[in-house]
Amino acid sequence: MLTIIPDLHADLGRLDATLAKVSGPLGFLGDFIDAKDTGDDRAVLTRVRGLVDGGAKAIMGNHELNAVLFHRGLRDDTPDNRKQHHSFLDQIGERTPEAMEWTGWFLTLPLWLDLGGLRLAHACWSVPDIATVAARRPDGCLREEDLPEIGAESTPFGRAVKRIVSGPEATLPAGHFFVDGKGKVRREVRLAWWRSDAATYRAAALSVPDPLVIPDMALPEGIRAEIYPADAPPVLVGHYKMTGSPRVWGNAASLDYPATPCAYRWEGEGALMDRGLVLLG
Ligand SMILES: [Mn+2]
């Protein structure tokens, strides 16, 4: 039995409310830091680290990976990247001894955990990407010497790491594009990797205001391989800032519902069930 807790984003009140409602072994899906507005990064990290030292499981989110890269000069120093990381920077500072201590701890968190009957990743359980990373790092934990190629996304290894924590995207076939919710023209589309029967760009497209503009053309083999097989063990992720009521999607689910906090209580079932969801509101 294990209770899986998604993205906390420096929200100590949410962590307290979660811990008051659940009992038994815990697993965390990453993105502990970086409040949207205000938060308490240090308090959340201290609590989670204490729980991990006591046996809780935890994986790395894209915010932890970005912080590791930022404090080593391996992430672009742009206003957007600083804004995303502002609550940590305000409280803990930039490349301070404490920032280096926390980001060093982030590197001890694996990118994925396979618990036998249940798999955990922050954004995507990509079978080919996990194989690529595991060939070098079988335990899923990155080392300092891996970081430059991840920051630059310059190698298959570096790109695989990014897809595991941030989710896969595909470049649309030549001539195709869509306009996103902010009015920006995009030629890359996020993939709903959990739709095991998705065979075309349109069926696999995520976060597109009008999916009909996406071509109903077959996904190339390399991209099709990112789609999670229907007969594989269940996967829980966070990351996707879901709206509406929490629900499972089949053999995968995101637990990241910022407006409707939830967790998942797994009792060994081989298929995810809506009744495993624990609402924390
Ligand atoms: Mn995330």
In short:
The protein is of the alpha/beta class and 281 residues long. Helices cover 32% and strands 15% of the residues. The chain folds into two domains: 2-158 and 233-279, Purple Acid Phosphatase, chain A, domain 2; 169-225, no CATH class.
Overall description:
The protein is an alpha/beta fold and 281 residues long. The chain has 2 domains: 2-158 and 233-279, Purple Acid Phosphatase, chain A, domain 2 (4-Layer Sandwich), CATH 3.60.21.10; 169-225, no CATH class. The chain contains 11 helices and 14 strands. It has helices spanning 12-21, 41-53, 62-70, 79-84, 86-92, 97-106, 127-136, 147-152, 156-166, 201-204, 221-224, and strands at 2-5, 26-28, 57-58, 112-114, 119-121, 169-171, 178-179, 185-186, 188-191, 205-206, 235-237, 252-254, 262-266, 277-279. The protein has a 5-stranded mixed sheet with strand order 3-2-1-13-14, with helices on one face. Helix 3 (62-70) crosses helix 6 (97-106). The chain starts with a strand and ends with a strand. Residues 7, 31, 61-63, 122, 239 line the site of manganese (II) ion (MN). Manganese (II) ion binds at residues 7, 31, 61-63, 122, 239.
